[in-house]
Design a protein that fits this description.
This protein is α+β, with helices and mostly antiparallel strands. The protein has 3 helices and 15 strands. The strands form 2 sheets. Strands 1, 2, 3, 4, 5, 6, 7, 8, 9, 12, 13, 14 and 15 form a 13-stranded mixed beta sheet that branches. A two-stranded antiparallel sheet has the order 10-11. The protein is elongated.
């Protein structure tokens, strides 16, 4: 009986001393960027992308999570660049800024993720208005941002454990929905020395497609 008690005690000590097992940590609390939806429209004249995200402010890949804010970003590319371009979207209006490096127009505003399959966006191009319907890139069977992060944590538990001590995770996590003829996720683990461990995750199966440091 005494030997059985000692064996049980030793097993308990071993379990409690394994890194990451002494306390359950919710790693989702360390997400500092979460792009949860994308809306798309495209024809021969215009390409529209709308990103719905939450991002820390100020936005800085320093391994420390900041206060999160809702953000909607709109990207418009035209076959012929106009002198003026403004948009109207879900009660938000504004003139878009031209970004010469990417040859597109950009506008952002604070807004929670839209819980709808489509968005009507009106473009005013040099005084002429036209409305387009952008459709969500997500579909049945696509994992959530949280699930994509969980897949990475399970895949690279050794790294996550090495960044965990005293019940805290010493880093921050980025997760971004990507659409390229299907849904994928970019997941980045950023340490406090600004090292980035990047993962590309299949948006349906949760399989890690590639990794990069």
């Amino acid at each position: 009986m005494k030997k059985l008690f000692i064996s049980v005690l030793l097993a308990t000590v071993i379990i409690l001393t394994v890194p990451g097992c002494s306390k359950n940590i919710d790693y989702l609390e360390y997400i500092s960027e979460k792009r949860s939806d994308i809306y798309l429209y495209s024809d021969d004249e215009v390409d529209i992308k709308i990103y719905c995200s939450q991002k820390e402010q100020p936005y800085c890949a320093d391994g420390i999570k900041g206060e999160m804010c809702d953000l909607c970003e709109v990207f418009v590319k035209l076959n012929k660049n106009p002198s003026e371009l403004s948009i109207s979207l879900c009660g938000h209006e504004g003139e878009m800024n031209y970004q010469a490096v990417d040859n597109l127009f950009y506008l952002s505003f604070s807004e929670k993720a839209f819980e709808t399959d489509s968005l009507d966006i009106t473009l005013n191009i040099d005084g002429e208005s036209k409305t387009y319907k952008a459709l969500t890139a997500t579909y049945d069977g696509v994992l959530s941002c949280d699930d994509a992060v969980k897949c990475v944590i399970e895949h690279d538990g050794e790294l996550v454990s090495s960044l965990t001590s005293n019940g805290l995770f010493n880093g921050e996590i980025y997760v971004r929905l990507i659409y390229d003829e299907g849904c994928y996720y970019y997941v980045g683990i950023i340490t406090k020395d600004k090292t980035v461990y990047a993962y590309l995750v299949d948006g349906e199966r949760g399989k890690i497609i590639s990794t990069k440091k």
